[in-house]
Amino acid sequence: MTEILPPLLPLLVGIPLLMGALGAALRKSKRARHIISLGTLSAMFVFSLLLVIATHDGTVLAHKVGFWDFTPQVAIPFVVDALNSLVLMIITILGITSVMFAMATHEARSRFYHPFVLILMAGVAGALMTGDIFNLFVFIEVMLLPSYGLLAMMGAKLGAHGARIYVSVNLLASTLLLFGIGIVYGTAGTVNLAELHGAAAEDPAVAVGGAVVLTAIGIKAAVVPVHGWLTRTYPMTSPAVTALFSGIHTKVSIYAIYRIYSVLFDGDERFLWIALVVTSLTMLIGVLGAIGEKTTRSILVFHMISQIGYILIGVGLFTGLGLTAGIFYLLHHMIVKASLFMSTGAIEETYGTGEIDKLGGMLKREPLIAITFMIAALSLAGLPPFSGFVAKFTIIQATLEQAHYWVAAVAVIVSVFTLLSMLKIWVGVFMGKPPADLEDNALEYQEKMHGKRYLRVQAQAENPTLTIGPPTAAMSAVLSGQRAVKVPVKLIIPGAILAAITVFFGFGAELLMLLSETAAENLLNPEGYVEAVMDA
Amino acid sequence: MSIAIAVGLLTAAAVYLFMQRGMVRIVLGFVMASHAANLLLFAAGNTAYRGVPYIGTSDYGEGGDPLPQAFVLTAIVIAFSITMFMITLAITTTHDDDTENDEESPAKVLTSADTDDAVSSSVDTSSSGAVAAGTGGADASPMSPVHDFEAQDDDSAEAPNADEGTGHHQGKEDPQ
Question: Where in the cell is it found (chain A) (predicted)?
């Protein structure tokens, strides 16, 4: 299998791109776009599952795109090992569930929704697999361009400010990344990661370039003190898009930080303290920021920042256990966070608001959502028996092993605050009595959303609105007062699937932990990675 | 050396423009910043060698490094497309290109006209007024933020026709 798979790697980028174009060309048929999108994403999932199986023993698969056989240095390498195949697999799961969610909210009726998601996925696959830092820049841009479209299109009802900030910050980070790549090329003479192995550890000039690259990627990963854009932009679009982005953009950047520090810096111990200080600040400031927030989504976005701190502890320690724990945490976090965004997003899409003060009593009204939210929230806070417990426990164990007691202390304190924030949402949204005007507001919102015939953003209007298609039979019944407002089951399923996965990874943590260990082993000893690229 | 100076100047100009709140200025800042990055990439390939980089067309010692040129070409295409998208974002959905949406945010409260501190506020409002006038002057409706800025501008500069904007102006000052 290790001989058949490498030449197929470029298909992971090419097929979604082609399918995205095909989807955009099919003007009329919604159904065809749905099928193309879900089909392509499922195929990507199956392929990444094969890659996980092929790399579970530490094998590194490498391929030079186009069978270019001049020299390994000039070819464009695609490299897959346990780490990026695992991340890709989880991202395809998130892609499938978020597309299901968007179909339930009717956003996917838009002609460009599915094409954008597929092109985004092509960029993600490329950014994860690429073996040189200039192509990393290119694929991050491929990934970002459809994201700009998605964010602006679905957030139009909230104004263009979110999109303006999002595009500006990301372009700034990309320009900075380009500066960094220029410095690395000028000092080391190559941008191929395998050739650059250990260059930053030996040569301070390359290390400066590497630091600029890491800073740029750090902005994209929303690490404190460059996290502000995330909390200003993610709540400014639709819940479906927030759920999709939460698992993809910052996480691909985190993967890049892991990979670059492992290969370019060869895990240099001199700079690790910087990472530990930054991660501790990220954990603390993220969780404190959530205290003042009033809507479910903005609270969750602040927690995302705090969790990014936990994930990056792995790089800060750069020991076998630390990296294993960090990778496990990354995979767990992607699933849990998206699940939380989807369960609170389902309420937001049905009742028209995510403000905690305007909601209440959902435990009685929507018991299924309540259970889904509860599982994911407890997992996020790190309570057994969910995957979050295993993740947090191993992270803290790894910091104690290296005698970084203050990092461990911060990690424990922050998880207490995380639990408090989750309880705030729980008490405000699910417990207590529903406000008197809950139902009226929900009806008003639904009427507004289903008023127009097709999904259309009226961007030039005085008050831009996003209206979605004709009401379904069930929705008509609600609008005419024959049925009570209730979250449709279709909206609950995607979040529930992800919640089920976190339970599965809680009880079956052994499996994912073994895979994370292999991935950590590959990061600790990048020689295998280097050899695979040079011999490909 | 000249490339280093050019990169420095372009970056300084870009950073200055990023500090503005109007979207069009930020976009111009990005044009500068991407030029700076492209020059730096060129410099990384050593600009002293300028021969044609194809094998067999010039001596190995004289041929330019083709890789940075490929990088720059790619980067230009990407930067151009995103710049176009950003300009689109600057004119959609509202009549101004402000990056601040919250009426009570410090950025807006501080730049609105304040009678106690007329000197500093006249500087602030004139800059934001210029941003608004540069982008949405043509289609500024009486209710649009563009008009507000102009009214405040007149007021703080103590122009003789300040009365015209007063009624409208006071209504908007309530958040303070």
Answer: Cell membrane; Membrane
DSSP string, A261-330: HHHTSTT-GGGHHHHHHHHHHHHHHHHHHGGG--BHHHHHHHHHHHHHHHHHHHHHH-SHHHHHHHHHHH
A141-177: burial string, b at 16+ Cβ within 10 Å, e else: bbbbbbbbbbbbbbbbbbbbbbbbbbbbbbbbbbbbb
**Min distance A15 CA to chain B CA atoms (Å):** 21
**Residue of A130, A151, A167, A177 for testing the chain B interface, max B β-carbons within 10 Å:** A167
CA distance B155 to A209: 50
Say how many C-beta atoms besides its own lie within 10 A of residue B70's C-beta. 14
Q: Which two tokens stand for residue B54?
A: 């194809």
Q: Do B93 and A464 touch (CB under 8 A)?
A: yes
Asked whether the beta carbons of residue A160 and residue B68 sit closer than 8 angstroms, the reply is no
What whole-number distance in Å separates Cα of residue A270 and Cα of residue A290?
33
A300 token code pair: 């969750």
Could you tell me the two tokens for A262?
């492992």
- Whether the model pTM is above 0.95: no
Mapped to the 3 state alphabet, what secondary structure does A506-532 carry? Answer: HHCHHHHHHHHHHHHHHHHCCHHHHHH
Q: Burial, A320: exposed, middle or buried (Cβ in 10 Å; 0-12, 13-18, 19+)?
A: middle
Q: Is the Cβ–Cβ distance between A249 and A143 less than 8 Å?
A: yes
pLDDT tens for chain A, 536 residues long, are 678 888 899 999 999 999 999 998 887 788 899 999 999 999 999 999 999 999 998 889 988 887 776 665 677 889 999 999 999 999 999 999 999 999 988 888 788 899 999 999 999 999 999 988 999 999 999 999 999 988 887 776 666 778 888 999 999 999 999 999 999 999 998 888 988 998 888 899 999 999 999 999 999 999 988 998 998 888 888 889 999 999 899 999 999 999 999 999 988 888 899 999 999 999 999 999 998 888 899 999 999 999 999 999 999 999 999 999 999 999 999 999 999 999 999 998 888 888 888 888 888 888 999 999 999 999 998 888 888 899 999 999 999 998 999 999 999 999 999 999 999 999 999 988 888 888 888 887 777 766 543 344 444 444 444 555 566 666 666 666 667 778 888 889 999 999 999 999 888 888 999 999 999 999 999 998 998 888 87
The shortest CB-CB distance from B101 to any of A159, A167, A178 is to A159
Among B23, B40, B44, the residue with its CB nearest the CB of A164 is B23
- Alpha carbon of B163: minimum distance to chain A alpha carbons (Å): 28
Instruction: Report the DSSP beta bridge partners of residue A63.
Output: A78
Q: What is the ipTM of this complex?
A: 0.82
Contacts of B84 in chain A (CB under 8 A): none
- B40 touching chain A per CB within 8 A: yes
Question: Does A460 contact chain B (CB < 8 Å)?
Answer: yes
Q: Which two tokens stand for residue B127?
A: 């800059």
How far is the alpha carbon of B45 from chain A, nearest alpha carbon, in Å?
Answer: 6
Using a CB–CB cutoff of 8 Å, tell me whether B28 touches chain A: no
| DSSP summary character for residue B112 | S
Domain ranges of chain A: 5-444+470-535
Q: Residue A384: which of A513, A499, A503 has the closest Cα?
A: A503
B92:A168 CB<8 A: no
